[in-house]
Amino acid sequence: MAAYERGERLPLVSLDNIRDLGGIQTEDGRYIQPGRLLRGGDLYHASYQDQNDLRRVYRLRTIIDLRTNKEREERPDASIHGVEYVAAPVVEGKSAGILWGQDRIRQIIHFRGDGEAYMFQLYEDLVLDRRTQRACGELLRLLKHHGEGTILWHSMAGKDRAGVVTAFLLKILGVHMEAILKDYMRSALYLQGDIQAVSRILQERHVPRRVQKNTEILLSVKEDYLIHAFDKITEKYGSFEKYAKKAMGLSAFDMNFLKDRYLREKPEI
Question: How far is CA 116 from each of CA 68, 104, 259, rounded to the nearest angstrom?
């Protein structure tokens, strides 16, 4: 296993936001096992070298694609030999938003809403929509039953849908909220290049500054969005534990099993 710091991106060439949760500490002093749980963005442009490294170096066995049917058709993941692929959309239709379709630049240019308000609503929908709740529960149960090797779940950019799903898992594993937010905010760093590239295109097209500002908001992350999502969970369900049971259908046994499967006493990274 290659050496890397806990929670940071893997040293891949073509994929900017693939991260191993290994080494993140829980409140009871245990650590997430390295080389088991990866989060990230899509694998559409994955180079042959990165595909090989994911399979051989990082022992990738399963890919869970959180994107919509349309997104998967427009930007299919690279097919990696020997790796199981699971389509598990957490949102469809209107709830999927405007952010990552193939014509996303055109959509952003024509977006007339308030970017901040849109993002807060998106995160609220991600935690309160019944379809999304069921899909998140199914995904976490899939993690529970996963065998040896590494599992990777991803959305398009790896920041919103993957961010919320990862935050749920970390919360269930017993990670402190401060560490959950730290992991979430790493996307802001690793997606800078993509945001700058889209911003340059908008500047070249001489779009209004308001549109450019909305672009930065829509394509980035902010702690307040994830905090808002958890606040909505507490407001409606009383606690995250009750949310996990009532909304996602996870039992206390499921959550303890996840801890036993993915935590250990000392990190090995």
Answer: 23, 17, 35
Q: Which of 87, 43, 80 is nearest to 64 (CA)?
A: 87
Quick one: pLDDT band at residue 92, thresholds 50, 70, 90? low
CB 235 within 8 A of CB 2: no
Rg (CA), the chain: 18
Return phi, psi of residue 250, to 5°: -95, 130
Which is nearest to 82 in space by CA: 162, 14, 20, 150?
Answer: 150
162-188 in b/e burial notation, b at 16+ Cβ within 10 A? bbbbbbbbbbbbbbeeebbbebbbbbe
The partner residues of 65 in beta bridges, in order of sequence, read: 87, 154
- Say how many CA atoms lie within 13 Å of 93 toward its Cβ: 5
**Which of 37, 101, 39, 36 lies closest to 67, judged by CA?**
101
Alpha-carbon distances, residue 39 vs 42, 118, 143, 234 (angstroms) = 10, 24, 12, 25
Of 255 and 131, the one with more pLDDT: 255
Which tens digits make up the pLDDT trace of 133-155? 998 999 899 999 888 899 999 99
pLDDT at 103: 62
